[in-house]
Amino acid sequence: MTALSSVSNPRVRQWRQLLAPKGRRAHGLFLAEGAHLAKEAVDAGAAETLLVLSGQEEAYAELARSAPEVVRVSPQVLSALTDSRTPQGVLAVCRLPAAGGLEAAGPRLAALNRLQDPGNVGAILRTLDAAAFDGLLVDAGCADPFSPKALRASMGAVFRVPVYACGDLPRALDALSGYDRVAGDLRGEPYYAHPPFGPRVCLLVGNEGAGLDADVLSRADFRLRLPIPGGAESLNAAVAAGLMIYDVLQSGENPPV
User: Fold this and answer.
1) I need a surface site. Which of 42, 113, 188, 209 has the fewest CB within 10 A?
2) Is residue 87 classed exposed, middle or buried when 0-12, 13-18 and 19+ CB atoms within 10 A define those classes?
3) What is the pLDDT of residues 201-210, one digit of tens each?
């Protein structure tokens, strides 16, 4: 087993760059921190290297047997590669998945427009995973789904739900032929009065404060407002997305079990 103790090691220096979006894009890699995410990465075949804290090899021996490469690291190296105050003793270096083109996307999608909280992005991914949706579109204004906070919130959903990065989200929505594009809109029609959606649906979720951009909202076939009978001005974006996702699941051809 290889051992790395210095943060100046070239491999460690490269891995440290994965803490920033630019580094993840440049190297095509991301870090999955903690026992749960590391196991998800190994099980999905996404892990290239498993990093285990020196002295904790026995605790992660079973996981290590399935990893392509295992590297023992010092506390200093582990700390340099995590954003947690009390990191667990393991993390995985993973390949960024290639989602392919939207023409191959499945019938149930969600699209995020400038959603900036990585916790919300991760929570929506987790809900999409639970509801067996087929993919998530994110525009350039969204928080990175492969950032540490988003990954923790997703609970490993990034290894099962394809993520499509869209530099031009309106254009990507135009290319979704045959989809009902359903926008969450505070000025829309009552949500639960909507007619049945077709078999192909893309849910549109906007920025936490500003909602959907006008050029995204203009692509919607349905503009719907979730009920808010109480005093709150709006719902949390991840909560609103979850309600919409499960409405599609409930009314679809394959009801929840």
Assistant:
1) 209
2) middle
3) 999 999 988 8
